[in-house]
């Protein structure tokens, strides 16, 4: 059998070409993908390695700052920030991992043994993807381990800080009173060293920095004077109480107490802060001196604030302006006791700073703490012995039992605790009495001020209320509403400022509060839902801005575009309403997006509630959809004269839920939109205001119908509001029971003139008919009595006689009842 010549089959040729193309494509794509993957990993690895190294460094620094709470807070915040950054870097790999897994699923597993081999390009790509995935997982594993280490470090630091605070309060020092002489000697030595340091610094200042000190002091005094003098000019009536007012209102007393405390304290704080800042800028302060001077400035600021607050609340010289019910003499004593407590507490703080700067021995530190805390405790106990209240008979009475027990308890603990060695606890307790007490007293004034402003009519008596009322921009109702807003704002500001200050007094650091505030503002988690307060506030601000922008655009479009286009009022109202709803919808969507709310979650919630909405809100939804249909199809518009059911009137407003109609009796009717869609509605001004008026009139049967028709047509054509085209017509309606019935039909250019035209024509018809001798009859009925039957005349005569007798008796009885006896006799004779 002869052999056939070898011919390369076309199918095999195509298969070979396809495989070669795949090899080229996959090989080239694989090389590019490999390059991109390596560059992506190389780009992310340095950042992750840097964070890992930073976390290792933070871990090694913990032991060196174990006794420094502020440094521990900074380490804790850095560890938490590093953990968050690692998480963010890890999240960046998720899209690439998803892409790799998807591609591996598409390629599939390697062929099993005995199955045809796959192209080499496919095998190469699978191996490359697996290797890349392994590198990414390795890097993510390192990042996850370091993130866990950072979280453990933050927890460890938190535990160390808690133990440090507990130790500071519960630590007991061994008090050896036999070493009192040595303590006095140490105090003398430290005082000499302190004086030497201050003297050297003063010589340095007078020699090299005298102009800088004078300039800094002058500029600081100038700033404080501007604030104080300007504030007194603006708030003079609120700062200085009027001694001639016998019974000032509570809000007036609160306002005076607030401004008389705030302005002087703020001016003094500005002076101290500006002085310290300028001295530091001019390099006047030396190391150690700066800390001591700063503590002295802090002490002075606190003492001045407490002094002004006590004076504002107690008003020792002006009982009528006092905010608390206390007698005058105890008020003076309380005022000085509060100032003395603030001074002693501030002195303790300054001495502690000096101890840190001078590295004083422990015995001297304990002795100073004992001195200040015992003295403070004695002042608190002395406060408990006061009798500030007077009963109805004028006899002084002590504090209520609860207040006395609290004062004696705190004062006794503050005195006894340092004597037993618990100096730290006594110092902490004394500081809370002064600082926390001052903060709480200020917050109390703020809350009472908010409560007073919220009362009806109170806001109108404030400076802002008087300004608004004087400008003519607020009625009493508006001012009361503004008072509620002001009250809520004051309460919010009091909490926003007071709570952090209290937390600072109770051992927390600024960094703690800053971190909590940032976390609260950026991420609040409830269950599986996370949201941001800053995002929500931003969304609200954006929504308000978009809302007012929509209102402005509505006004601009209506006043500048639609008014020039000669659109009628109904069309303009429909366009304005549609733009308003569209703008509000866009504002809501933008606000939600800015707030960071996931709309997909809202879609899920809406889907879950769709059944309940369908049953429970079907009427509202029906009215809403009907309102949209009315706005789109516009079967009637604002200003149209419509008839819907038993109601007739003018359309005043079309909303998405209901339509407002005003009847001609000035009654407002609110009709649901679904009723207007589902029933017949008559519109007399749908396309234009052209209308027809029918006037019905009847004439006697003796009248000439042609004459009547001519008169009616003449009167219609003579009226100025009746159209000539279509021309008037007279309709001979019917032969009535007592008249010939005609109907005059005329057309008007404006149907709203119908009442005027009908009245004028009726008056003209009456006059014309009277002049022409045409009678306008009224309904009549003739009674015919048939006669000629047997006995009819006798029966009729009998009936008439009987009826006349009855009528005469009734008339006589009525006259007798109403007249005098003489009159009755006269009438009887007459009859």
Describe the structure.
With 831 residues, the chain is α+β, with helices and mostly antiparallel strands. Among the domains are: 20-170, Methane Monooxygenase Hydroxylase, Chain G, domain 1 (Up-down Bundle); 179-388, no CATH class; 530-597; 617-686, SH3 type barrels (Roll), CATH 2.30.30.60; 691-772, Alpha-Beta Plaits (2-Layer Sandwich), CATH 3.30.70. It contains 25 helices and twelve strands. A five-stranded antiparallel sheet has the order 8-7-6-5-9. The protein has a three-stranded antiparallel sheet with strand order 10-12-11, covered by helices on one side. β7 and β8 (668-672) form a beta hairpin. α13 (423-454) runs antiparallel to α15 (476-505). The protein is flat. The chain starts with 9 loop residues before the first helix and ends with a helix. The model is unreliable at 1-33 and 811-831 (pLDDT under 50).
Q: Roughly how many Å is the radius of gyration?
A: 49 Å
Count, helices: 25
Rounded to the nearest angstrom, the distance between the terminal CA atoms is: 166 Å
Give the integer mean of the pLDDT values: 78
Task: Let me know the number of strands.
Answer: 12
Strand line-up in the sheet with most strands: 8-7-6-5-9
Which band does the percent of strand residues land in? Answer: 5-15%
General shape: flat
The major β-sheet equals: 5 strands, antiparallel
- Judged by helices, strands and strand pairing, the structural class is alpha+beta
Residue stretches low in confidence (pLDDT < 50, at least 5 long) are 1-33, 811-831
């Amino acid at each position: 059998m002869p052999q056939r010549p070898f011919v390369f089959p076309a199918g095999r040729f195509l298969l070979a070409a396809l495989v070669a193309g795949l090899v080229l494509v996959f090989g080239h794509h694989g090389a590019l993908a490999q390059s991109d993957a390596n560059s992506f990993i190389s780009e992310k690895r340095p950042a992750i390695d840097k964070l890992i190294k930073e976390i290792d460094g933070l871990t090694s620094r913990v032991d060196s700052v174990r006794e420094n709470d502020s440094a521990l807070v900074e380490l804790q915040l850095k560890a938490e920030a590093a953990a968050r950054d690692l998480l963010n870097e890890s999240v960046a790999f998720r899209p690439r991992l998803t892409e790799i897994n998807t591609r591996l699923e598409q390629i599939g597993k390697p062929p099993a043994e005995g199955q045809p081999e796959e192209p080499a390009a496919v095998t190469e790509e699978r191996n490359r993807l697996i290797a890349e995935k392994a590198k990414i997982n390795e890097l993510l594993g390192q990042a996850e381990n370091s993130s866990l280490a950072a979280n453990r470090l933050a927890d460890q630091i938190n535990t160390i800080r808690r133990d440090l605070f507990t130790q500071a309060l519960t630590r007991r020092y061994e008090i050896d009173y036999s070493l009192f002489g040595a303590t006095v000697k140490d105090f003398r030595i430290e005082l000499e060293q302190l004086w030497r340091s201050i003297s050297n610094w003063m010589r340095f200042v007078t020699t090299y920095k005298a102009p800088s000190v004078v300039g800094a002091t002058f500029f600081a005094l100038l700033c404080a004077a501007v604030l104080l003098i300007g504030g007194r000019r603006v708030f003079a009536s609120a700062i200085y109480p009027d001694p001639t007012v016998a019974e000032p209102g509570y809000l007036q007393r609160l306002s005076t107490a607030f401004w008389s405390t705030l302005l002087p304290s703020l001016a003094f704080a500005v002076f101290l802060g500006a002085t310290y800042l300028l001295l530091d800028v001019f390099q006047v302060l030396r190391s150690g001196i700066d800390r001591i001077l700063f503590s002295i400035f802090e002490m002075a600021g606190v003492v001045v604030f407490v002094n002004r607050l006590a004076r504002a609340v107690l008003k020792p010289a002006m009982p009528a302006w006092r905010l608390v019910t206390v007698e005058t003499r105890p008020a003076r004593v309380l005022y000085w006791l509060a100032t003395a407590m603030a001074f002693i507490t501030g002195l303790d703080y300054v001495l502690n700073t000096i101890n840190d700067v001078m590295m004083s021995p422990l015995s001297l530190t304990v002795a100073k703490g004992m001195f200040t805390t015992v003295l403070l405790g004695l002042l608190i106990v002395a406060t408990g012995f006061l009798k500030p209240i007077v009963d109805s008979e004028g006899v002084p009475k002590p504090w209520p039992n609860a207040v006395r027990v609290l004062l004696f308890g705190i004062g006794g603990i503050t005195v006894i605790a340092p004597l037993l060695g618990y100096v730290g606890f006594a110092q902490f307790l004394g500081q809370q009495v002064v600082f926390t007490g001052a903060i709480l007293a200020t917050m109390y004034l703020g809350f009472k001020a908010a409560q007073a402003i919220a009362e009806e009519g109170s806001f109108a008596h404030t400076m802002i209320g008087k300004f608004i009322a004087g400008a003519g921009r607020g009625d009493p109702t508006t001012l009361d509403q503004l008072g509620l807003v002001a009250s809520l704002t004051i309460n919010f500001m009091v909490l926003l400022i007071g709570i952090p200050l209290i937390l600072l007094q109770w051992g927390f650091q600024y960094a703690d509060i800053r971190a909590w505030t940032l976390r609260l503002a950026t991420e609040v988690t409830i269950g599986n839902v996370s949201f941001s307060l800053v995002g929500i506030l931003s969304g609200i601000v954006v929504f308000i801005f978009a809302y007012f922008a929509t209102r402005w655009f509505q006004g601009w479009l209506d006043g500048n575009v639609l008014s020039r286009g000669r659109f009628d009022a109904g069309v303009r109202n429909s366009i304005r309403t549609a733009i308003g709803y569209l703008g509000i919808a866009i504002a809501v969507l933008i606000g939600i997006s800015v707030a960071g709310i996931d709309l997909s979650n809202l879609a899920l919630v809406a889907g879950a509630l769709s059944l309940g909405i369908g049953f429970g809100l079907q009427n509202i939804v029906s009215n809403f959809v009907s309102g949209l249909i009315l706005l789109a199809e516009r079967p009637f518009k604002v200003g149209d004269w419509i008839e819907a059911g038993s109601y007739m009137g003018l359309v005043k407003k079309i909303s998405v839920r209901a339509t407002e109609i005003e009847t001609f009796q000035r009654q407002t009717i609110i009709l649901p939109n679904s009723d207007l869609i589902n029933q017949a509605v008559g519109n007399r001004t749908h396309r234009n205001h052209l209308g027809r008026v029918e006037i019905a009139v009847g004439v006697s049967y003796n009248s000439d119908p042609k004459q009547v028709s001519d008169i009616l047509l003449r009167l219609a054509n003579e009226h100025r509001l009746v159209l000539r085209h279509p021309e008037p017509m007279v309709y001979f309606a019917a032969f009535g029971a007592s008249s010939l019935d005609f109907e005059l039909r005329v057309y008007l250019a404006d149907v709203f003139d119908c009442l005027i035209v009908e009245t004028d024509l009726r008056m003209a018809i009456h006059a014309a008919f009277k002049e022409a001798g045409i009678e306008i009859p009224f309904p009549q009925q003739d009674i015919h009595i048939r006669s000629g039957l047997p006995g009819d005349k006798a029966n009729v005569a009998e009936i008439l006689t009987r009826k006349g007798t009855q009528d005469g008796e009734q008339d006589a009885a009525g006259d007798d009842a109403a007249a005098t006896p003489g009159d009755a006799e006269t009438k009887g004779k007459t009859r």
